[in-house]
Amino acid sequence: MLAALLALLVTLPATVWAVGLVLGWLRKKQILDHPNERSSHSQPTPRGGGLAVTPVVLAVWLGLVAIGAALPGSLMAILGAGLLLALSWLDDRRGGLPARLRLAVHLLACGLALTALPDTVLVFNGALPLWADRAIALLAWVWFVNLTNFMDGIDGITGVQTACVGLGLALLGATTGAAPQALVLAAAAAGFLFWNWHPAKLFLGDSGSVPLGFLTGWLLIDLAGHGHLAAALILPLYYLADASLTLGRRLLRGEKVWQAHRQHFYQQAVRGGASHGQVARLILIADLGLVVLAVLSMAAPLPALVLAALVVAALLVKLRSLGSEALA
Predict the structure, then answer these.
(1) For the segment 5-22, what is each residue's pLDDT rounded down to a tens digit?
(2) What's the pTM value of the predicted model, to 2 decimals?
(3) CA dihedral 294, 213, 6, 203 (to 10 degrees)
(4) What would the DSSP string read from start to end of 14-75?
(5) In 10 A of CB 136, how many CB atoms?
(6) Which member of 14, 37, 141, 153 has the greatest number of CB atoms within 10 A?
(7) Domain boundaries defined on the chain
């Protein structure tokens, strides 16, 4: 508990301070996200807040490893996140990195980190042989990294999502020992929201969304490996549902799924006239409900999963109706 409290007290102000410094540098260098037909913003906005958020998270996680308050194998996850930060910042700065290159690096980072899990930690709780457990976990983790990036499309959304998932992981951390690391994620996301709440002063960029998705995925996989697969599915269920359903629709229409678009449920609401803040608040309320259900799933996994699915379904319907009502 002491390590968790210290991590929280250090991470929150450090993130607010570091993002402010990076924002000044991004403005000076004119590293801006210029709006286009697929954007949800209308003004050029600095992009690259991940240059502050990700290093703060990694530095505090390293400190936790140094004092023995982090999960075994976390060093591999930290190294993987550092690799993804470097690649993602290059993409933020120059753009246009081949999708195959990005996917290959994501697979490499997730694959290396999975090697740090003991053979006794089975993500699917023994339902699969070890090789299949690791293979499916790898694909699921890479998908989670990418969907976190895909979903980072309006002010406040990834900050809200990461803060809520981190809070849930911290509450469940007594069973895994991950509470300090989870609180670091939650505090960093909250610190970033100080700058990113609508109207955002800067965007997270790939240098933030990709590594944060990776580190969150690491903690979710560890949670599942400790026998709490239902909780690991419930906490990020909104992002999983919105991204996966949208991808499925685009695949059925024969679209190039790797290209940017504005078809996610939250984007439909914004396109229809709902504000970024209104959408982010709805997601916050739903995510807090998912945190409660994730905790309850420790005692009743299946009922909690069913209720979580209903919560997310209601949120998706509401987001879609917001867009339809505004357009009408």
Answers:
(1) 778 889 999 999 999 999
(2) 0.93
(3) -120
(4) HHHHHHHHHHHHHHHHT-EE---TT-S-SS-EEB-THHHHHHHHHHHHHHHHHTT-S-TTHH
(5) 13
(6) 141
(7) 2-29+41-327
